[in-house]
Queue: 2 jobs
Job 1
Amino acid sequence: MSTDTDTDSFDFDGSALRRKRLLGKAFVGACFAATMVGIVALIALLVDVVTEAWGWLTWEFLTYPPSRFVENYNPANYGALDTGPGGIYPALIGSIYLIVLTAIFTLFLGVGAAIYLEEYAPDTRLTTFIETNIANLAGVPSIVYGLLGLAMFVRALQTGSSLLAGALTLTLLILPIVIVSAQESLRAVPDSMRRASYGTGATKWQTIRNVVLPEAIPGIMTGIILSLSRAIGETAPILMVGAATSMFAPPRLTQPTDAFSAMPMQIFDWARLPEADFQHVAAAGIVVLLTILLLMNAVAILIRNKYNRRR
Amino acid sequence: MTANGSQTVSTADSSGARSDAAMTDNAPLGSPRVDDAVIESRDLDVFYGDDQALHGINMDIPEHKVTALIGPSGCGKSTFLRSINRMNDLIDIARVDGDLYFHGKNIYDDDVDPVALRRKIGMVFQKPNPFPKSIFDNVAYGLRVQGKDDDVEEQVHTALERAAILDEVEDQLDSSGLDLSGGQQQRLCIARAIAPDPEVILMDEPASALDPVATSKIEDLVEELAEEYTVIIVTHNMQQAARISDKTAVFLTGGHLVEFDDTSKIFENPESDRVEDYITGKFG
Ligand SMILES: Nc1ncnc2c1ncn2[C@@H]1O[C@H](COP(=O)(O)OP(=O)(O)OP(=O)(O)O)[C@@H](O)[C@H]1O
Ligand SMILES: [Mg+2]
């Protein structure tokens, strides 16, 4: 090792630096490897699921209710069936309705709470306490929200194991994240905009509605959609409120007290059945779930990009 | 040590009207009294937390004239401007003592609604701050929030015309206000401020972010606006104050109003040596 402290001549060829450079390179290599582990594992998983599902994911799979018999899911048998093909339809609709209801609830509750905390709440210790705890709630395991939903909605409010109970529980689950991200979006609206509005004689509410919210809404929407895409894959909370593992008829949006199933439940149900071919069916279900999830994330990214370009 | 500590001032129009005692205690040099005052400031103190930014400001602001506020950075010009339309209310730590009368009504009385006040006293800011909305919606904003939008098309056109920007934007009223140049944005903001027809327009260094051409357009505009509005303008630019204003108030460091008089008097023959030094560029 070169002694780089006691030489008084200029180290013109950088030989003293060589060891440090090598160390740097090794570190970059390690980081790259770490990144690759994650990516390779993810790709392997996706490839595995898609190959499992290949040939089993058909239009009929999306539009028919599930069946007890694994043969009914196999497209090769569709022609010879007397009961109709098996599919994911009720759980797919259940998941979509669940997300729609959850979106509506979180939009009002989350944005309402964020506006209150950010624009109206006095700057007191209590406010700080509440804000800190909302942030903490975001880390509570989802099964705890499931238990809460069971006690609060299913039992106390007597909603039964319904679509409504599921949606309300998922709302509780993602509300903290939605509130925090909405608060950040509101905070990002420049004060000069607010001042401009007050300067023209607008009231506080007019300022919030006409200037602050339009500026913040793309960020708020992005936060909500990303949270919803987390909620759509959640199994524990809806399991706790008693979602069915498998339903023959989809719930109705006009009847929020209908019993329901959702895709994660249905997939779980298929995956634990003994017949080997049910693994293909489960894989097909996972592909449907992942597709919806990726679509939602894509929408969120589109909104964010459109909004960024506009500035 | 205050510059206006115990000056005894005798000017032609310092008789009659509100709280004379206060006025003589704290009055600046010059002629702080005018007969046709819309705004009368009496012993106005402003604090930010424990720091006092303005000390006993006494001045009358005449109607339909341009009043310039000049002085070195940090002397409280913006603070004074903001206390006229109660924009200081938006700053948590700001506190105002003393009185400020608008048409004889103390705007710091409990029964005054700052929103209603701001509908009478419009404001243009240092940095152009159009909303990320169309040019039309920017100008219509004040009309809409004030519920004066019965004839919004025409009012928007009139405001844009008065702000001397109509020709440049007439055929792009639907495009975003943010797509305009800085100078155009500032005139758009002026149009936005005058559209709901306030009585007074406050301008805080409206041209400081602009190039000379845009600046001279704003200056011309300010002189024209004074025909219909009372204009109070903060500026760092001595020549600008001399060119466009009728009255000039000189604030000096620490938040004291040192001299207030006709602009010609201030620039040609100020009473205070410190004001003279400041104006001739010896300090500040
Ligand atoms: N929002 C605020 N919070 C705390 N102190 C403030 C605030 N605004 C102004 N001040 C203080 O009040 C004093 C006067 O400030 P003000 O902005 O009124 O000066 P100004 O004359 O407008 O200066 P400039 O020419 O630089 O704009 C300064 O000492 C400033 O630090
Ligand atoms: Mg200022």
Job 2
Amino acid sequence: MTNTEALKELIYKMADDQLILGHRNSEWTGFGPLLEEDIAFSSMAQDKVGQSYALYQILNDLGEGDPDTVAFMRNADQFHNSQLVELPNGEYDFSLVRHFLFDTAEAIRFQMLTNCSHEPLAQLANKIKGELRYHTMHADIWIKQLGRATEESVSKLQDSLDRLIPYAIGVFEPSPMEDQIIEDKIFEGEGKLRQQWEEAILVVKSKTPLNLPYFSLVKPV
Amino acid sequence: MESLDPRVNRLNLSTTELTSKAPLDQLGTYEVFSQLKEDKPYFHVGPVHAPNCEMAFLFAKEQFSRRQTCTGLFVVETRNIKVSVFTEGEDTVYNYISNPGELANGNTESFELFHLKKRGKQHEYIGTIEASSAEVALSMVKSEFINDKPVYNIWIIKTSDIESSQDEDKIIWDTLPDKKFRDAIAYKAADKIKEFKERQ
Amino acid sequence: MYGGGNTFEHIKSNGLENEDPEKLAQFEARIERGEKIEPNDWMPQLYRKQLIRMIEQHAHSEIIGALPEGTWITRAPGFKRKLALMAKVQDEVGHAQLLYSAAETLGKSREQMIDDLINGKSKYSNIFNYPAFTWADSCFISWLVDAGAIVNQLANARGSYGPYCRALDRICAEESFHLKYGHHCVIHMATGTEKQREMMQAAINRWWPPMMHFFGPSDKISVHSEILMRWKVKMGSNDDMRNQFLDMYVPKIWELGFTIPDENLRKNEVTGRWEYTEPDWEEFKRVINGDGPCNKERLAVRRTAEERGRWVREALLAPKTEYVAPLA
Ligand SMILES: [Fe+2]
Ligand SMILES: [Fe+2]
Ligand SMILES: [Fe+2]
């Protein structure tokens, strides 16, 4: 028997993160640095909003309100999102680095959730594997490209990484019901996710001259 | 200036006078080919600009396969496509291609072959040929792939110049059928209009 | 999106006396037979020049056209509308990509075209210089401005230049989603609360004059070019396009109980043509020459996007690739 409150807490956090980042990323539609990238980034923003919609539907089936009401009628203090996703867009390096840090975590999170004890969540995780594959493919290729191109692009990425890493680690803030979540086999936990995320980030980073801080010394935001 | 679009207000619009944006920063050109279903041929769908094959693929995926179905996609740099002459009417392009002379039995490579069967339509994948050069490949096509229907133009691409989707990446198109919000059929409203008129 | 308000250059001399008469005859015969011209085919200079101009303006209209509706992306009501609007605006950017590519096959690079857009040298559809005050404005654009664009685009898809026609085939397929989505939005407003109906009516009142301008100056005062019609570059007169639009959509607006702010608007059953108050062509000229409510903002946004994207494109410039015109 899964603890529904713990499950809901986790889904809220995920859905709110995706909803808000989807909105932020959609701000680039029509303003992108080149047409083809404008289109690609917009698709991924749509995926994010679409995935959050699916998560709110799962919440709805668990007794929460209608997805539109829950997503768009709550007050700011009722959201469970991380601060990373709400930061204003800034320049493209900022959005791209945030996309890289967040989506790398998200892809691993949903990979873990394919084993979730709550069947609808496991099904969703399986279904959107391909979307997330494209997102991480996109992020990795861009970071590799800009992270070793010109002096300007390398230093811009470095600045954004320095600024965003503490926020990115903030995404892994354990739920108040973390033990329950792990015990009920809903999810293997933020700690384990963070560990795998750090490894994945390092793999991409190693193809560039970019620097990362010692993750263990970073104070999460 | 204050915009009605909150996104624009966060952009910090530049307010200087209009100027040209020289220097020109035009990226390279790639042609994109896609396959809608496993048993269907690849078709040319259009170009993208990108710095390399990898990014061209990334861009092509969303520009040319974000609807319906897709089972494969590849890109090739435009300048690496060998183009034959164009013909029209009953005149097939193969009338202008000489028969293979001595086929050197040396090193061969594989080439992908595309036909334009109707002017105004797209080039379509026909087959793969092992040959020592694009020119030899072209001359070999005649005997292997030709039928009575005229062909108006041929493209030949060295297989190794192609960046193609890998089998394990095909899942990137998995959820396309679920993206109903991108299709006209999701917006039926005849009932609502009827109901509205009846209420009047 | 795209209006027939194309500013074709006034053709002083068509330069045909400098063209090879035999090649010209073959070229015209091919068009006459209904076959497409492809980039490698011989074509008169005038054909190339006017096509570049037209396709380029069309492309600019798509990328600028993404802005008025983009105004509502972050605030579209509910998941379904939000996803649809994001996808719709994205399509418009995609249309720009397709159209720039088609124009590039004629020998002008995308960068040169974008440069001409942001330095004010080339035009785009006038209607996008008007603001989208409310959600209802965005509904009007999605349904009716796109409907107008479709009238033009379907006509142009029967034109003579292969790459442009192929781009338009893809575009028209996507436009049918825009049209249905837009209509769905307007129906929802029409059948909603009193407030929603009022909002929608207000949007119709605001957008009607620019909508009439959309198809370009009336045939009485616009530059005709018999040769562009013969070469299937321009596929119908401005008044014909406007009439087609009115015929298809006025009844659909009326059926939802809305009014159109023109008391002279009616179909003449004898001629089969629509009659209306002559649009204010002075206003049209003023706006197209830069003095509309949003011209400055639209161009500033595009220019800012280009400026802010500069370092990205610079970082992508790779010595191993080279720009060439697309093949088809
Ligand atoms: Fe449009
Ligand atoms: Fe469009
Ligand atoms: Fe459209």
